[in-house]
Amino acid sequence: MTIFSRQIFQSIKQELEQLNINLKKMIEADHPILCAAAEQLFSAGGKRIRPAIVLLIAQITSSDKKISAKHKRLAEITEIIHTASLVHDDIIDNCEIRRGIDTVHSAFNNKIAVLAGDFLFAQSSWYLANLENLNVVKTISKVITDFAEGEVQQGVKSFDSQITIEDYIEKSFYKTASLIACSSKAATMLNNRDKLIQNDFYTYGKHLGLAFQIIDDILDIVGSTKNLGKPAGSDLKNGNLTAPLIFALEERPDLYKFINQEFQSEQDISIAIKLIKHTKGIQKAKDLAEEHIQLAITILQDKYFTQHIKELLLITYYIANRIK
Hints:
Helix content is 74%, strand content 1%. The protein is an all-alpha fold.
């Protein structure tokens, strides 16, 4: 984690440290293999962006600026759901490395990985029910449905050269933005805030989540394996056609050939990446991410005191700066 990102989380440092401890307790299982598989998921850490957003929104929308036990549990649930989705993603994409370590299905096998992912979704559902807030349960449960919808859409559109930016944004919402949007909204619900405030933070989370996914997809083209924690060009290899490529197709129709051949070799991926880099595709994708970042910022700045939202804005800028 960079110095900048550590500064962002300074006010919730203790909560995040406790979150890491609690996550390991929450995923304990009776069966040693399942327990080891679940442990594998959290051993590589992660930035904890999603739970941090939940904790900060809890602080902002609380009358006494304190973070309740239920909010801390919601933050933990959010991270477990996110991690469970990564397990299933890695199986579908046959990704062998995540955050620089072996993925669960690489360390064990596909069967154990599927069960580990299902176990985490089940655990998150159990802890969610114990929040005893029906509206929050409904809101967060929708996320799991959205994950499935996103995976189906991605599968149907695999190596589909006719995919549009609108298709891509819809899939990105289901796969990434839904969790951030819904958990942001749920944090305000636990503070009994009105529907206008709930919708403000839902919309903030939606735009932030879309920007996050677009930037991730740009980094898959321009980043290194070391920085990404997984091989560069993974999206191309798995047929996930993302914003940089979709925009690049407007200038380089010869990219269609590689898509239609399903990027048969590492050389195909390497050539495609070079072609994309020599178009305006990456810049257009950056502009699209920036558009969503600005929409997220505007929602906060127009309605909330800057002093209260300072750290939430810092997270937003941090996400934007990942590709600067």
